Amino acid sequence: MRRRGCIPFKDFGTSRRNVSDPLVQITDLKKTFNHLGRPLEVLRGIDLSIEPGELVAIVGPSGAGKSTLLHIIGTLDLPTSGEIAIQGQLLSAMGEPKLAALRNKMIGFVFQFHHLLPEFTALENVQMPGLIQGLSRSETEPRARKLLEEIGLGHRATHRPGELSGGEQQRVALARALFLEPPILLADEPTGNLDSATSDTIHDLFFEINEKHGTTIVVVTHNPAFAERMPRIVKMRDGKVDKDLRRGRHPKASSNSPAEG
Ligand SMILES: Nc1ncnc2c1ncn2[C@@H]1O[C@H](COP(=O)(O)OP(=O)(O)OP(=O)(O)O)[C@@H](O)[C@H]1O
Ligand SMILES: [Mg+2]
After folding, report:
1. Which of 10, 105, 147, 149 is buried deepest, with most CB atoms within 10 A?
2. Dist. CA 246–CA 124, nearest whole Å
3. pTM score
4. 19 pLDDT band (50/70/90 cuts)?
């Protein structure tokens, strides 16, 4: 895994890692919600393995369980049964402190609605994950500035979210998610509420991040053009993986190229 290492991290239990372990291994994963006293089976036996550096689109109809799966991969929710392992480490074997450490170290999130802190500037929002970890402003600022430059928003560092366009806000959220250099980036409909030109800019950023940092990216999307650009598409239906398509397509192929069926 490539790391630029400008912020030191404690090694996260890599000692147990076997080189043949996938980055994410999901085995017979099930999730049942209890709703008004009745069980609702939302994930009904998911098997999925994701290798380091992969770009994966998760697609499927509304209610198929895409967000639920993404939340479980991101350790924000627990499965009802089945296993999920990250770098060979079973999440079910971890207590909350260890899970939280893994989440901070390994996973960045981008959601449909950016969830930026309105009273802080773009720069401060990007710095926030570092500040929360106890790093100082001066330690975190250069990297936050660099990330803002990378996403083309160096000139908006002092703007608060209310002073940014929707696409700019989403790009700041992306920079924030990348601040701690997570090897895994999870995104849930990151361009769901943006126009198509702005969406394309953000889609391009995902490919650039993958290429530049080797970040593994799993993105839930309803955008067929974006999904078509991804080398792997996991199609979900009724809480199961319906199709898992790997193509040799180069992700840099233009979003304007005709989509293949
Ligand atoms: N906390 C919950 N309690 C009960 N049911 C839930 C809960 N969370 C999600 N569900 C149900 O689980 C199903 C799957 O939800 P999920 O959010 O994973 O769908 P999705 O594939 O992301 O859909 P969309 O494309 O609309 O975002 C839905 O039918 C939803 O109503
Ligand atoms: Mg969803």
Report:
1. 147
2. 38
3. 0.87
4. low
